[in-house]
Amino acid sequence: MSQSSEWQELADKLFLNTVERFPVTLVRGEGSRVWDEEGREYLDFVGGWAVDSLGHCPPVVVKALEEQARTLIQASNQFYTVPAIKLALLLTENSCLDRVFFSNSGAEANEGAVKLARKYGKIHLNGAYEVITTYESFHGRTLAMVAATGQHKFQAPYIPLPEGFTNVEYNNPEAIKRATSEKTCGVMLEPIQGEGGVNIPDDDYLKKVEGWCRERGILLILDEVQTGIGRTGTLFAYSQYNVEPDIMSLAKGLGSGVPIGAFLAKEKASVFVPGEHGTTFGGNPLVCAAAYATLKYILDNDIPRKVKQTGSYFKAELERLKKQFKFIREVRGRGLLLAMEFDSEIAQKVAMECLARGLLVNKVKPNAIRFMPPLIITTGEVDEAVGILKKSLKAIREEANG
Ligand SMILES: *Cc1c(COP(=O)(O)O)cnc(C)c1O
What we know:
Blueprint: H1 3-14, E1 26-30, E2 33-36, E3 41-44, H2 47-50, H3 59-69, H4 82-93, E4 99-103, H5 106-124, E5 130-134, H6 143-148, H7 152-155, E6 165-168, H8 173-179, E7 184-189, H9 205-216, E8 219-223, E9 247-250, E10 261-265, H10 285-300, H11 303-324, E11 328-334, E12 337-342, H12 347-356, E13 359-360, E14 362-365, E15 368-371, H13 379-400
Parallel strand pairs: 3-13, 5-6, 5-7, 7-8, 8-9
Antiparallel strand pairs: 1-2, 2-3, 4-10, 9-10, 11-12, 12-15, 14-15
Helix pairs in contact: 3-10, 4-10, 11-13, 12-13
């Protein structure tokens, strides 16, 4: 028995059973590639789940971590620390938001965002506390965020869920209007739904929702945990839709692999007073130094523009595959958040065929795969990935034809 399968058997006994893993133990990464225990190389189009924005072990982040690890790792938020301040400055200078709170994950950022909206409701909206969210959304795994996440499979095991959330149809401004009541303090949306299958709304959806929020005086909360930090071809997706959130959450790509989240607010929505929210680890110097190095690199090198170019190239290549394989139903996405949908539930099979040929992709739905590679991938690497995908699709077609 190989060492690898021994580790994997052990893991299956040790961990709570929450995920079906691929039979691969990854031990090392560099740039857009990872290696398993047996030395097999993979081109990584999962990217640590849209997290490794600058690729695996990017030198600027490694350097920042090394230096900060020797200087100060954790201090608690009772004290000022420089990396967090530098990061907050960079985030606010480059967004429409004014203030920041650092958390450890996307779910925790969204929890804070909703708490802030509830506090706003208490002060300014007669105690309104309800937040409208959408079906097929994803906002995280805490109990409240499961209630916010409009997907039955995530909610069913935990009913009764915390109250204060109403799930309505996505890409339908009227549904939000109908669900708005005296109790509503905000609307929380992903500009593009990531986990729900890379669902792109109509161009005017967010603008209409923003208009409604302004009319009613309720808050627009954008969950940019997946779409933020350059993923869709601009630093934040909201600018592509010409809207400005009152509150925005971030996480995944912010730290190039270190666990950090954040929620940001406009001054008018920054209604917390000391003691109302907190975190032990959030915003510690180590993760903030890594996130600062990440964001600085992304801004200095205009990575969002490169994402737009590489993403367009990649999407066009996927469209070409669609012409060659009738069972591809649709290619969709923006920047380097792309999905390929099939006319049957073959996504797992496609992912396994790609894996066997050295490409990591994500099964986002039973009938769709998702690509969320490092933002720094080259068109050469896209060509390589598309070549592997094509071979994999051919193998599946041949098998189906007997
Ligand atoms: C991944 C994700 C989250 C949850 O982030 P965690 O860090 O896993 O808690 C929330 N919202 C969106 C849009 C996400 O993609």
